[in-house]
Amino acid sequence: MKERARSILGTDQLTVPEIESILKLARRMNPKSPPQLLRGKRIVLLFYEPSTRTRTSFEFAAKALGATTTLITATSSSIEKGESLIDTGWTVTLLGADVIVMRHPNSGAPYLLSRFVPVSIVNAGDGLHQHPSQALLDALTITSHKKKHRGLRVVIVGDVFHSRVARSNALLLSKFGAQVIFCGPPDLVPDIAATIAPGVIACHDLEAALHGADVVMSLRIQKERLSGKQIGLEDYIAKFQITPQRMKLAKPDAIVMHPGPIVRGLELANEVADGPQSRVHEQVANGVKTRMAILATVMKRAR
Amino acid sequence: MISAKRSTLLIAGGRVIDPSSGVDRDMDVVLRDGLVAELAAPGVLKASARETVDAKGCIVAPGFIDLHVHLREPGQSHKETIATGTAAAAAGGFTAVCAMPNTSPVNDSVEITRWMQAPEREAVVRLFPIAAATVGSMGEKLTDFAALQKAGAVAVSDDGKPILDDTMMRDALRTGTRLKLPVVQHAEDSRRTAGCSMNLGPTSFRLGLRGMPNAAESDIVIRDIALARETGAHIHVAHISTTEAMEAVRQAKKAGIRATAEITPHHFTLIDENVGDFDTHYKMNPPLRSAADREAMIAGIMDGTIDAIATDHAPHAFHEKQVEFECSSMGIIGLETALPIAITVLHHHFKLPLWRIVELLSCRPARVFALEGRGTLVPGAHGDVTIFDPQKKWTYDASLSRSKSRNTPYDGWKFIGKICATIVSGNVVYAD
After folding, report:
1. Is the pTM higher than 0.90?
2. What ipTM is given for this predicted complex?
3. How many Cβ atoms are within 10 Å of A208's Cβ, its own excluded?
4. A33 versus B252: which is more confidently predicted?
5. Regarding the domain delimited by B63-368, which CATH topology (the fold level of the hierarchy) does it fall under?
6. Contact B418, B389 (CB under 8 A)
7. Are A112 and B202 within 8 A, CB to CB?
């Protein structure tokens, strides 16, 4: 289990003090004048799935700390020739990687790798399962606007079933005593979703969910995932789009978040996405700081 | 090749449990010329000039019969061969195994059915093929049941590729009725389980894995029972795993329909939560179900709804199991751990009497597939005997398995109950 201790795989495995220490470190990180904590370290970005913000922010974070990075993608490597995940992991490890930052379409892939290779793994998103760095940067964003997590009413709206962001956030927020309301049509928010952590409920009525909300987190809707479901695109927009009118149900100081990429005109009305309550740009900016803190933390633990 | 040895074997000092004849007392057993010759009170039969097996402190039972194994030959000998699979069977106390047809190519022909039983395969225990019910298990055209039965098949099944079409299933059952051949169904509505890799429930949601609903199993079981009622056929439900399917079989039996069911040791021992953080040793099909389903499995064993414990022994190579959870092959090896799990879980924990465990492993499975002269120790029966110590404590070490594969969740488990010796046609094929 020594290998596990040096990796960040999911928010369920992080303790409250561990999360607080990462957030504290993230607040101190300044990408413009960074401490050279990872000078001479080699960080491999192993991306089996496309990504813009996560990949770029991990790369900037690593470089800001003085590390060198290499990007490996599925289509331009031995992975395309059918190399197994464990073999690829060993290859990267033996070539001298200190950390593997990994994005993979299959839930659990980084857990598999962490059981076999003696190198730190940072999960940058696995299937529908976890996206811990996103949940941590979201927590950083929330804490800079809300005094404490305990008792916060956080509404997560959209395709919860297919969302690793929803799972990671719910597990993290629950640890801090927040109330999490998953909201969306039953196909995308199955009742079973509420079992993920204490203080989580599933709700199919957006107005009811938004009432008294402190944080409104919108998720991306992949249009193709609505096909074959009971709810159509128009219907979704009518019932679940976050509009200025609906935001009036939330607390006046409520903030609006979205992990990106936003599908314009679908999940959020433009007035909300670009409005005064939106913290979407801040989330992106917090991404680099948080990922700097994550990399510094796993390397500190590895030493 | 198992040949009847022209000799005599005395099994002395043990407690004979033979549910087929109601025997449960200390007795010595003599096997002669490959058959059970006589049973007598301890010490009456003279041991001189005979080969003797000391069964002191042990249970002497009719040879165990596994209705559901995958031996991977022909075509996938990197996972298992008939020789290695049946060696594992012998080590697990099984004197006969029924081999599923999902080989490569599928066993849908007389040639493959005969090939599997040929002496060149070097089977250590008796092998009974289960032939495919449809050509290539494609669900489109029935195989020649009569010819396959004549060649040695004891049942037909499209295991792993369930027959979904009502007309095709009705035809299979009708033909089965005429020939007195059981039709075995892996009950899974595969149209509702595409892309699923475990049971639908809180654990599948937490892990971000697509889950199989109970109804995908039970709806097929309910449909098959209705067709069995209509056709008078014998439907055998493979590896039952859900509360609803168990209830359907229970009611079918009450209504006098010829429905039988087997259960695997893992479905009465483990639950979906055991998948933990994506441990592929807990990935099987049917998947491990909820704690409530597991309780229903225990209840079905207790009240006699279940006819047999079958292992669904499913060997896979390391590189087929140690991959991303959704990509991993389904199933685990199980021949060597079946009895120890049954004793540890069913006998010691749930207080199921030993004779019931013996019944579920020998005489009732023999009856399910009508295996003449097996699952019993009455004189004249085949000299197939399993001897085990119900009290022995030991730790399972998967690296010592006789199977070619190592895919088991039980490595390092502490068990109570161990096989001491396995005898097939009067020959000791395994001794601890």
Report:
1. yes
2. 0.95
3. 12
4. B252
5. TIM Barrel (3.20.20)
6. yes
7. no
